# Entry
Amino acid sequence: MARKLKPDNLLFLTTLVLVGVGVVMVYSASVGLASERGGQWNIFLLKQAVGAVAGVCGLLVLMRVDYRHYRKPVVIWTALIGVIVLLVAVFFSRPVNGARRWLFFGDVGVQPSELAKLAVILFSAAILERRMDRINEDGYALTPIAIVVAAVGGLILVEPDFGTAMAVGLIAGVMVFAAGLRFRYLLASVLVVLPALVAIIVNSPERLARALSFLFPEKDPLGDGYQLIQSLIAVGTGGVWGTGLMEGVQKLYFLPEPHTDFIYAVVAEETGLLGTTAVLLCFCVIAWRGCRIALRAPDRFGAFLAVGLTTMVVLQAFININIVLGLLPTTGIPLPFVSAGGSSLLTSLIGMGVLLNVSQHALAEP
# Structure
């Protein structure tokens, strides 16, 4: 019997800690960059702070909205169609750094690919709730999810944004696996998708250069391997204790865009092993509490929603941290709650708000 519980306070506090760390580290990582570009010295801090306040307000609202409203077809299809329209609209927007990933409303930029993750999670959770019992029947449950993931992921890939497209597919894959998909079907899917991924990388000079720079960064230390080498220098310089907050050197014109995808390197340099371990433990707490919420959810929809939202945050954190440490090729995936970027921050906090609401409806432990 389900009973009303308070939201998961540990998950809530951990999320707020990461948001606070993000505001502080974005300021530390970007103040020199802002001055170099001739802009306001605290411009990135202000943007991150505004995004954090808006995101936390959204979290507080959504954690009070019954998650079962999201299973309604009108909500799911509105979200999915809306996201697809936005993903098409970005191709008519102005390019940023050679890619069309943003829609601009005045000075405010929105990245629809971030919102696409939430839409795919809602759709997949609704399908799996109804069709989980026949998950291993060819075409019954997997086909609609595969079609949506292919459509959304394909539009994101063309932007181009390989990392986010891959993340959308992996999130859906984890949800399907959690529904009881047999391992042999999962293995077969990997064997089918892997050649396609290789072809996508090989046929793109930029992606191929990133892959080669990951394997052999020293071959082009001033070119494609530069960012990874500077990241590793920052991580190594921090040692156990770090150089001290605001005392990092690599962020000063060495590490490109240190406030975004490689902010974990700045954390490593300035706070050392202690700081990076603390951030890593926060994401481990999110994974633990998210799994606990999924296991105790009162219905399948809530369980799959919890799996998808937890995977969205934890998977991105795992990929980002491994990229900074040189264990994965660079893909442009931000560190949730910490990297600069309003769209990523808002999406992550919205996801946590919904997850916290699921926790309020959890089944009581025996």
